[in-house]
Amino acid sequence: MRPRQDRIFHYITAAITMVASIAYFSMASNLGFTPIEVEYRRSNPVVSGVYREIFYVRYIDWMITTPLLLMDLLLTAGMPWPTLIWVVLVDWVMIVTGLVGALVVSSYKWGFFAFGNAALAYIVYMLAFEARKHANHLGSDVGRVFLMCGSLTAFLWILYPVAWGLCEGGNVISPDSEAAFYGVLDVLAKPVFGALLLFGHKNIEPSRLGLRIRDYGDDEAHHGSSKGHIGEKGHAKDRGNGLTGATGADEGLVTGNGAGPTVGHGQSVV
């Protein structure tokens, strides 16, 4: 098992799964939705009617989990923190505009849909180009993990606007089909993604990615090591003094009257 300071990707992935599980519990309990008047009234009996259920709890889930997914990817690529924060803000724009568009009755919803797609296009660009370059620079193994997980994320996220257009936007498919569509995407984008990411990180040290996090035990070990070094130096000094003091009273071998080395009280050595 990895030490605590090396579990950052495990904690992020666990948080993603936990939040998504709570959101799906709410939706399975038929909670967390509001009826919204549809813009397009269909003759198909599965989508006929004036109102449609909009599950806002799904967007709350995405507001929390999609930044964590991006953190998993961008930290893997070793991206700097300012870039990561900026991409997360763009991601929030994408989610909020999607929610507002779903709650708007008029055709203005498609304007919010366009803003959300622009934000998504920027995120996909960052994953496909900037972050991929950073990951490859850190090593071929890091580049492979990022390519695998980043490609999966980019592909799945592009399908979310398609689902939105068929469900909240266009009222084309039924709420049951909507739940299945989003459900498959979420399973692939979260637990499957997380399993692939953690498997890929099995032999990658977080310190290589600039993620060396100190634990409280590290400080104790550091101070203990320093004390050990000081003690060793002290013993070495004592041993050195013992070697230079040949008789215990005099220091070392001295040369007396040029006749040769003498020891102690001037006695000649022959």
Automatic annotation (TrEMBL):
Keywords: Chromophore, Membrane, Photoreceptor protein, Receptor, Retinal protein, Sensory transduction, Transmembrane, Transmembrane helix. One of its GO terms (biological process) is phototransduction. Residues 220-270 are annotated as: Disordered. It is found in: Membrane. Residues 220-240 have a biased composition (Basic and acidic residues). It comes from the Eukaryota. GO terms for molecular function: monoatomic ion channel activity; photoreceptor activity. SUPFAM superfamilies: Family A G protein-coupled receptor-like. The chain crosses the membrane at residues 12-36, 56-77, 84-104, 110-129, 141-160, 180-199. One of its GO terms (cellular component) is endoplasmic reticulum. It is a multi-pass membrane protein. InterPro entries: Arc/bac/fun_rhodopsins, Rhodopsin_retinal_BS, Yro2-like_7TM. Belongs to the archaeal/bacterial/fungal opsin family. This is Uncharacterized protein. It comes from Venturia inaequalis (Apple scab fungus).
